[in-house]
């Protein structure tokens, strides 16, 4: 399975199954698109939509672009080990990361993501749940993001949300807005 920019390639049959289920629900709803959306919204909203993903560079493209910008030479070596394809990334001749998969494309995606993490990992950057509010059946969350910059640490908290992922997204958005409004953009 591969999601756009991800590590795995999704089989076409998965899309066919989702489409068939949506068709059946659409039929049961009397061809009412609004009713269909009410039913599927909760399932589909957590999935990042294509227009958002298209704005984000692919891991391989990002690795090559960042390396070119820094004047570095990236080499990706491929080899077959049994039934696996193995890819290794070298930056100016120095080994950075490796990844493997049954499919060469997936090995490329995996090694590019691993190399980006290795090259740009900062142990001081983190996202945490700051507060959990309310009883278990009605829990709400507030998350924070902290990043290291040359001038020190930047720390922001997001809005209170009913899901951890939404609270994380709120904190991330607060950080992005803070960076855009500050001298760091």
Automatic annotation (TrEMBL):
Keyword vocabulary terms for this entry: Hydrolase, RNA-binding
One Pfam family named in its UniProt record: dsrm
Keyword flag RNA-binding: yes
GO MF entries: ribonuclease III activity; RNA binding
Residues annotated as domain RNase III: 1-30
GO annotation, cellular component aspect: cytoplasm; nucleus
PANTHER family: DICER-RELATED (PTHR14950), RIBONUCLEASE 3-LIKE PROTEIN 2 (PTHR14950:SF66)
Protein name, as recorded: RNase III domain-containing protein
Organism: Anisodus acutangulus
């Amino acid at each position: 399975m591969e999601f756009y920019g991800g590590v795995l390639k999704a089989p076409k049959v998965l899309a066919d199954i989702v489409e068939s289920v949506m068709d059946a629900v659409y039929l049961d709803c009397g061809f009412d698109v609004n009713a269909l959306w009410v039913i599927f919204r909760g399932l589909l909203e957590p999935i990042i939509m294509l227009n958002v993903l298209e704005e984000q560079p692919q891991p391989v493209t990002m690795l090559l672009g960042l390396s070119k910008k820094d004047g570095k030479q990236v080499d990706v070596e491929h080899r077959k080990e049994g039934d696996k394809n193995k890819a290794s990334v070298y930056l100016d001749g120095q080994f950075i990361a490796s990844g493997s998969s049954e499919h060469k494309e997936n090995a490329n995606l995996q090694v590019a993501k691993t190399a980006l993490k290795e090259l740009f990992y900062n142990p001081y950057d983190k996202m945490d749940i700051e507060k959990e509010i309310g009883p278990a059946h009605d829990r709400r969350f507030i998350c924070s993001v902290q990043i290291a910059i040359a001038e020190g640490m930047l720390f922001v908290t997001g809005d209170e949300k009913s899901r951890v992922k939404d609270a994380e997204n709120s904190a991330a958005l607060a950080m992005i807005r803070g960076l855009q409004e500050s001298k760091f953009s």
